[in-house]
Amino acid sequence: MLESILSYANDHAWAGWMLVGLLFAPPILISFIQGERGISPIGTMLGWWALVFIVALVLA
Questions:
Q1: 38 burial class (0-12, 13-18, 19+ CB within 10 angstroms)?
Q2: Contact yes or no for 36/54 (Cβ under 8 A)
Q3: What is the rounded distance in angstroms from the CA atom of residue 60 to the CA atom of residue 58?
Q4: How many helices (H) and strands (E) does the chain have?
Q5: Taking Cα atoms as reference points, which of 4, 26, 27 lies closest to residue 15?
Q6: Domain limits of the chain?
Q7: How far is residue 1's CA from residue 7's CA, in Å, rounded to a whole number?
Q8: Cβ atoms of residues 45 and 27 within 8 Å
Q9: What is the pTM of this model?
Q10: What is the DSSP-derived secondary structure letter of residue 37?
């Protein structure tokens, strides 16, 4: 399933940007809203990626 998603994102530029946006935009916005500064947004980013990974495992 991951291979098909990545190949689709590779074939279509908008899908690639959406994939990157899904991985990076939400944790950045969450960190900004919570007012995190310094190194603390790294925890939010890792938590988001862990959530996305767990959802991918459940869907696989």
A1: exposed
A2: no
A3: 6
A4: 3, 0
A5: 4
A6: 1-59
A7: 10
A8: yes
A9: 0.70
A10: -
Helices 41-59 & 13-34 angle (0-180, nearest 10):
130
Question: Tokens 């696989």 identify what position?
Answer: 60
CA distance 11 to 37: 37
pLDDT in tens, 1-53: 678 878 888 899 898 899 888 888 898 888 899 888 888 888 888 999 999 89
Distances (CA, A) of 60 to 3, 6, 9, 54: 12, 15, 18, 10
Tokens of 30: 């969450």
Tokens of 45: 């980013």
